[in-house]
Inverse folding.
């Protein structure tokens, strides 16, 4: 990781805004992948798998209109997958959950995602969105959790040697760690780069800020 000096005006960043922005992008992907998994269950096979058996095959048919949901500090956009050649109408059971609790989830999900990133366990984020009676099978949820765990490990081990950093911010902060009032401490490092980007370098669970 390369470091360059800069004046105070150019190096100043709002770490909380940078963290919220980073989390918001990943929460959008988090929800979209839940929707893709939901339609995969409805069809009965993964996107890359071929239909096998005597039953009439059901196919994916792109996506519907963009849905906007307000989150802490901004908006995310998701698209409901569509199907064709099905006698039964496909209705997402996940989107209505988000509609009913959009205000609550908008404030909670980014923090739950960061907590999952720090702990390596996205169970709380899934419970926060889906509730205890999840509209996805246990096997689907386990596949999603395994995928997020793998991506977390890749993110933690990414090569930062070419990153040109002009300023770094490190601190501890508390985020909501569940669907109750419990708070968890996160230790985070955010870098400002020469091209003006804010990059989350580390996010680890900690017992206290100092």
């Amino acid at each position: 990781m390369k470091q360059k000096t800069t004046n105070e005006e150019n190096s100043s960043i709002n770490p909380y805004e940078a963290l919220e922005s980073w989390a918001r992008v990943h929460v959008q992907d988090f929800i979209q992948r839940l929707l893709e998994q939901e339609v995969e269950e409805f069809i009965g096979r993964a996107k890359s798998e071929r239909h096998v058996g005597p039953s009439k095959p059901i196919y994916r048919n792109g996506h519907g209109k963009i849905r906007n949901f307000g989150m802490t500090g901004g908006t995310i956009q998701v698209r409901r997958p569509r199907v064709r050649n099905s006698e039964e109408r496909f209705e997402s059971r996940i989107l209505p959950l988000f509609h009913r609790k959009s205000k609550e989830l908008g404030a909670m999900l980014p923090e739950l995602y960061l907590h999952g990133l720090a702990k390596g366990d996205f169970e709380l984020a899934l419970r926060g969105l889906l509730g205890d009676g999840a509209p996805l099978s246990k096997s689907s949820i386990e596949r999603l959790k395994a995928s997020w765990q793998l991506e977390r490990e890749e993110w933690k081990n990414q090569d930062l040697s070419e990153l040109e950093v002009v300023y770094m911010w490190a601190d501890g902060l508390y985020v909501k760690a569940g669907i109750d009032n419990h708070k968890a401490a996160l230790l985070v490092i955010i870098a400002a780069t020469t091209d003006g980007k804010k990059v989350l370098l580390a996010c680890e669970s900690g017992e206290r800020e100092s």
Confidence is low (pLDDT under 50) at residues 5-11. The first helix runs from residue 8 to 11.
